[in-house]
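WARN retry 2 of 3 for item q-0093 after timeout on previous attempt; input resubmitted unchanged.
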Amino acid sequence: MAESKSLRMELSEFSIMQTLGIGSFGRVRLAQHRETKIYYALKILKKSEVVRLKQVDHIMSENDILAKIDHPFMVNMRGLTQNDRYLYLVLEYVQGGELFTYLRS
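OK item q-0093 returned
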């Protein structure tokens, strides 16, 4: 795998829009980078829920893997930031919904 790239971003760089999906300890919102106008999927994880559900190691692994990969067949992470309550993962936005929804049907 490649070296981790610099991914630190500021939440103020984005206009946060509608909710795209809701999960166990967070949600995914559509976000647009204010300067470039590029759309992203902003995964917002509530830290207290991650801890309560004992998913800290899982989220740290997800973050580490996403930071190291860059592949045309994967949704790549473009940035991350956090505050006292939330962890924010900036992911490529792919229209069409969740793959899991298609797999179920």
